[in-house]
Design a protein that fits this description.
Blueprint (H helix, E strand, L loop, with lengths): L27 H14 L2 H12 L4 E3 H4 L6 H13 L3 E6 L2 E6 L1 H15 L1
Antiparallel strand pairs: 1-3, 2-3
Helix pairs in contact: 2-4
């Protein structure tokens, strides 16, 4: 059984972070927001954590389920915080554990930014 699922790329309710790259130059504010998202994903550990959350069954994962990425638990927490601060993840505390989920609207906006530019 596969845990992969398609994430929405062109949700009509999504306000993209910025226009497709080939539409017009980014404003300074759009560039800052977009760079923060890509910077957060630019670290291999963060990218693995993001992928672990995105591919986890049900679309969310407890920190206890995704912490096996070759770094200490405090470092995992630091990287998850960076992903959350960049707006890529949302979290919810349930008892002693924190559950993370990917923000689909952000993924959709990033996907629209890149796929429109690739056409």
């Amino acid at each position: 059984m596969s845990n992969s699922r398609a994430l929405p790329l062109l949700d009509p309710d999504v306000q993209p972070c910025c226009p497709p790259l080939n539409e017009r130059p980014l404003t300074a504010e759009e560039a800052v927001r977009t760079a923060a998202m890509f910077k957060a994903l630019g670290d291999p550990v963060r990218l693995r954590l993001f992928s672990a959350v995105a591919s986890h069954e049900g679309g969310e994962a407890c920190v206890c389920d995704i912490s096996d990425v070759g770094v200490s638990q405090p470092t995992v927490s630091h990287h998850l915080k960076k992903l959350k601060d960049a707006g890529l993840l949302a979290s919810e505390r349930r008892g002693t554990w924190v559950y993370y989920r990917v923000e689909p609207s952000v993924l959709a906006a990033m996907g629209q930014l890149l796929t429109s530019a690739a056409r």
